[in-house]
Specification:
This protein is α+β, with helices and mostly antiparallel strands. It has one domain: Aminopeptidase. 28% of the residues lie in helices and 36% in strands. The protein contains 4 helices and 7 strands. Strands 1-2-3-4-5-7-6 form a 7-stranded mixed β-sheet, sandwiched between helices. Strand 6 and strand 7 form a beta hairpin. Helix 1 runs antiparallel to helix 2. The chain starts with 5 loop residues before the first strand and ends with a strand. 22% of the residues are buried.
Length: 148
């Protein structure tokens, strides 16, 4: 029987656990310079960020926020411990965040900014690529700006 994973709201005490999972995805999926951006994001948007736990240990995370226009939601900083890849946990987290976004009656558009390593994952949810910028995140990590 598979272990039960739980999604719950992020708390500031989760910061180190989130950073540890981020580091397990660096440099394959993230440039090392992005850790500071993640930390700033956690400070600013912790109230719309979530962690996934298994046996009390953080194994993944993800969140969203609204752009200043108040009508554009953006999925942000979703990643999982690579040892848990292929279990559908990322899909669960994205669906959770999309459900939360849709609770806002002003939502008109949802975006995600990702890389060439994950754009196909988001395409499965209906996101379409709007723009590609080479080396945006770091050397060899291109921006794929997607919308649905």
């Amino acid at each position: 029987m598979a272990e039960l994973s739980t999604i719950r709201p992020y708390q500031p005490a989760d910061r180190q656990g989130v950073i540890e999972v981020f580091r397990r995805n660096t440099p394959e999926f993230f440039d090392t310079n992005e850790q500071l951006d993640l930390e700033k994001y956690l400070d600013a948007h912790w109230n719309t960020y979530f962690v996934m736990e298994e046996k009390g240990k953080i194994i993944g995370c993800g969140g969203y926020y609204f752009e200043k226009d108040g009508i554009t939601g953006r999925l942000s900083w979703d990643f999982f411990d690579p040892r848990y890849k292929g279990r559908g946990l990322g899909r669960q987290m994205i669906n959770h965040c999309l459900e939360e976004l849709r609770k806002n009656p002003h939502l008109e558009k949802t975006e995600v900014w990702t890389s060439q390593l994950a754009w196909q994952f988001y395409a499965k949810f209906g996101f379409e690529t709007q723009e590609v910028k080479e080396d945006f995140w770091g050397p060899g990590l291109n921006l794929y700006r997607m919308e649905m």
